[in-house]
Structure formats: structure tokens, C-alpha cells
Amino acid sequence: MSSFLQSFLDPKKSWLAAMHMKSLSKRLRRYGLRYDDLYDPLYDLDIKEALNRLPREIVDARNQRLKRALDLSLKHKYLTEDLQKMQTPFRSYLQDMLALVKKERAEREALGALPLYQRTIP
């Protein structure tokens, strides 16, 4: 990616990116979600593999956040203000494992080995 594009997308340098990040943070806090909760394991099999490698309590916490968000959305309600302040929408739990899975897949492809899983999107 070019340095101009990187500086344009960096919230520390671009006011537009910072404004987008603030808006996204507000929407995620309303439902108690984290940014990594938005990744869909049915869409990308690397994400599915990364979720399988994470500890069970982290995956359970993710599922609980998704269920709570779905319930609040169906009821047309938000979390209370004090609970919204406690949320950390950009604290990542999936990115490190996802990077490791992608690195392993790229290494297997470079060595000419068969993939661990077939890429089929439902």
C-alpha cells in the first residue's frame, strides 16, 4: 500500500479516519461488541481456523457478546450508558492468531503442500 494511502487511513494522521473510528466505536459500544466480533467464520475459512485455535473462554465470550447484541437489536434497545462506557470495541483478540493462520497458509502454498482445508464459500 502506498504511503499516502496508509497516512490517509491512519486515525492518528487523518481527521476523516479518526471521525470514522469514533463513529464505529460508538455503534459497537451500543451493543457491547468488539471489532473482531464482526468477522464471519462462514465467509473466510482462515477466520474459522483462527477461532478454532483460540482458547475456549475467548470464543465463549465472543459468542455471548454476539447473542447479547442480537437480542438488543431485536428488542430495539441499547446497552445502558454505564455499560457502554465499560466496553472496549478495539481491543483485539483475533488478529494475532489470524495473522499466524494466514502466514502458515502462505508458507504451505509456497512449499507446494496441499491446503489444510478446501476453500468453499457457502
- For this structure, the CATH topology is Cytochrome Bc1 Complex, Chain F
| CATH architectural name | Orthogonal Bundle
- CATH homologous superfamily descriptor: Cytochrome b-c1 complex subunit 7
Helix/strand-derived category reads mainly alpha
Distance between the termini: 30 Å
Largest sheet: none
Shape: flat
Overall number of domains: 1
Number of helices: 6
**E-strand count:** 0
SSE order, as H and E? HHHHHH
Give the fraction of residues assigned to helices. Answer: 55-70%
* Mean pLDDT over the full residue set: 89
Radius of gyration: 17 Å
pLDDT under 50 segments (min length 5)? none
Regarding CATH, which class? Answer: Mainly Alpha
Beta-strand residue percentage: under 5%
Subcellular location: Mitochondrion inner membrane
Organism: Durio zibethinus (Durian)
GO cellular component, one term: mitochondrial inner membrane
Function: Component of the ubiquinol-cytochrome c oxidoreductase, a multisubunit transmembrane complex that is part of the mitochondrial electron transport chain which drives oxidative phosphorylation.
Q: Can you give me a brief rundown of this structure?
A:
The chain has 122 residues and is mostly helical.
Strands, helices and their partners?
Elements (H helix, E strand, L loop, with lengths): L2 H7 L5 H17 L13 H9 L2 H19 L6 H6 L8 H17 L11
Helix pairs in contact: 3-6
